[in-house]
Structures are given as structure tokens and as C-alpha cells.
Specification:
globular
Length: 292
Amino acid sequence: MQTPDIGRMILERTGDAHEIEIPFGDLLKIRPLQLPTGWIVNVGGTPIDLSPTRNVVFLLVAAFLVWLTLWLTGRALTRQREQGGGAAAPRGFANMVEAVVLFVRNDVAIASIGHKNGAKFAPYILTLFWFILYCNLLGLVPYGEKPTGSFWVTGALALTALLTIEISGFVTLGAKGYLKTIVFTPPGTTGITAVLLTLIMTPIEIIGKLVKPFALMLRLFANMAAGHFVMLSLLSLIFLFGNIAYFRWAIAGGSVVFVLFMMAIELLVAFIQAYVFALLTSTFIGLMQHEH
């Protein structure tokens, strides 16, 4: 029996594509759903492909689920409080979602940014948390896709964080105060020493501004993509050693057990990474709200 190309199979499953697999499509002999292609836009002579891909579709699904979750929660809370005379405590699913929202708002956004400006940024931080969480969880659903396993998606999220951090800092500090976060002269230095240290520190400060969103992008992408690679690699052991008569069932059973264990870890990581991205973004915004 010819050994399958496991590396190609893993890369095809973890990569993006212009098609979506139909549940049980192989058994029912149904071909994958083909997404439209050829949406090319020329910008300055450079062609840019805007055709929707599998990641784009699941990004829209994640956005819809965020809206649906919070809309249903708000509706349930309104109905419960009307029935309880305005003083009824939330129950069930609405209670869980409200607890998460209050935690992210109070203990992440406001605690990191400050009471003065934290509430203004709470909607953005909450949107980041819920959107990333659903993107992470969709990859654990059968026939689902994890958009945050693509560095283009995590890079776009990090770009929104960079713009929010820098623009909010400029608005809060003013032009002069914001310039101090770039052109930094260490306190207590004068003369040629101050000039030399300023020349050294300024590029370091600029690099520091770019490293923060890059770290956000890389951390989320690496953590979410790694889980899929590990699970698919474990499952591939079944195909690699499937022709060994005496060990095939032991290998298959062991692979499935380890994959289930990894999926449980991935479920935990999905929540942790959404929390970490929201927390670090809040921290970086808070750091820019004050003089250097």
C-alpha cells in the first residue's frame, strides 16, 4: 500500500481555499461548495484578489454569532427584568454572558486602561474578545474552519489594535505629548549625552510601537495554528501505520485518544487566547494614555 503524502494533506487542511466542505460530502458523493473567484482589483497597477475564501466565510459566521449571542442575551435580560419588576437577577445563558461581559469590561478594559477612559474602549475590547473567541471555537466544530489560524486574519486584528493604541494616545496626549513617546530623552541628561541617547532611543521606541501588534498577531496565530497541526499529525499516524496488522487498532485507538485530549486543550486555549489578546490590547492602550 502506498504511503499517503501526509504533509500535503495537513497543509491543504490547515490552509485557506476557495471552497467549503459539505458535511458528509465524501459519503454522499457531493463536491465541496465552490466560492466565487476572479474578484480582481488593480491598485496602482498591482492586482489584488478580493475573492472570498473559506476563512472569509467563517469570519462572517463568527461576526454573526457575536451579534446573535449579545442580541439574544439583551433580549433575555430585558424580558427577565420586565417579569421581575426590574430587580430580577439574570438566569441561565443570559447570566453567563452578562458575567463574561462585566468581567471583560471591568477587570480587563477599565482595570488596564483606567476608570477615566476605560469605559470608552470597553465596547472595542469586548468586540475583540467575543470575535476572537468565536473564530477560535469554529475551528473545533466538525467541518469548521479557524480563521485565527491564518496570520492574515490575526494581522488585521493586530492592525486595528495598533491604530486604536496610537490614535487614542495622540488624542489624549496631544501632538507634543505623543511626540515624547517617539522622541525620548532620558530624564537627567543634558548636552551631547542627551542628544546621543535621544538618537539611540528614538528608533528603539519606534520599533517598540511596531513590536507590540506584531507580538499580538504572532501569538494568536501560532497558538491556534499549532493545535490543528498537532491534531492532524496525530491522526496521520493511523494512515502511516495502518498496514501493520498487529498494531493498527492500538495505533488508531491511541491516536484518537490523544486527539480528543488535544481538542480539550484547544477548547481551553480558545478562551485563553481571546482573553490574552483583549488584555494585552487594553494594557497597550492604557500605557499610551499617559505621558512617557
